[in-house]
Amino acid sequence: MEIRLLKKGYKSNEQFYQDFLDDKINSNEDYFSNEFVTIADAPDFPIYMGRGSEEEKKQAFQRAFEIIAASYIHSDRDLHLEEIFWHSLLVTKKREFILENYPIVSTGIKDFERVVIKPFDWENYIYKCVLAAEYIEDLDINVEEKKHYYNLVLENLDVYNYIIKYAIFRNSEFLIKILTIIDELQISNIMKSNIKDRPDLGKDERYGRRVIFELNKKYPVVMSPLLDIETLKNEVIQALSYYYDVSDISMSTQLTGAFVE
Predict the structure, then answer these.
(1) pTM for the full predicted model
(2) What is the DSSP letter of 50?
(3) Are 5 and 33 spatial neighbours (Cβ–Cβ below 8 Å)?
(4) How far apart, in whole angstroms, are the C-alpha atoms of residue 86 and residue 7?
């Protein structure tokens, strides 16, 4: 599939939005650069998970993980981590899919920006899925083990989202170690729970977010991404202890996983 890339200036453009609704983007040369990219296949996948029940969101993420892993991340990394590529693909090839599955984009330009041309950063749902697929597919493990780690991401989406907020934590080894620690210590429910009686932290602060925040705050004194899994486990427990009574969390669990030494 050949995709013509947009040129800068399309964001927050009322006419661009209206032309998307009226199916006039592809016929307007003014929107495009002279650059093209070619990818073998570009199947539809969920692009926005900011709606529905928690189970519906998890199912959408799972579907996106599967399709992106199979069809998109085998391209050059500079391509599948490029904002203009994704925005160009969405507005030129996925218009009908978007209008059918995300009709809210028809209600106004703000919803269009939020769903379709959101900045390609840690808050972007496609970005979240691309990173997870890239990290897990790069692991030298079998299919069942990969499925296990995808499930761990799905069970710990809030923590995963917060991990990728910080550039220093964006690597597969750190992600897998953190997910393994959460799984083996059986603290997933704790990590995703809201912190109560701490108005100083905000209205929707969660234990997992504070753990990642504390690990980031210690960097570079403590190089969390480079720690072996046992040392990192101790750092996680210590960070959690600032907000939660960790006395009932067992430290005797035998950790297993792709990066356990």
Answers:
(1) 0.91
(2) S
(3) yes
(4) 13
